[in-house]
Amino acid sequence: MATCRELIERMIKGRANPNTVAGTRTAMRAVFGEKWESAEVEEGAVERFRKRARGRLSEGAVKTYAHRVLTAAAYQEAPGGAEMMEHSFPLRADVTARLSLPRDLTRSEAERLSGFVAALAADHPR
Length: 126
Fold this sequence. Notes:
By secondary structure, this protein is an alpha+beta fold.
């Protein structure tokens, strides 16, 4: 698990828009308080923030802060230095697929990946 400071550094290294980085810093301060830089970003902390913030902040502000923190948590650095993003895809009602893909995924790479996934499909009924 990464700290807020590490995630901000990854965003900067990945050339995230400076306004996005500033907004994420603000969100992290709101969610984690004074010691935000050393706080580890995990889903439970964001949920606790949502509960604490009820009535203090507008619902829109709470959603925005939570989204910014969770989006920053999806930044990962892959071997070779490529910035990676974690994605979840609801495949079925009871199954969520997770993918770790380069932040700058090209259409050509997406098409290759699509072909790979298609080749994995089992043709028999479930």
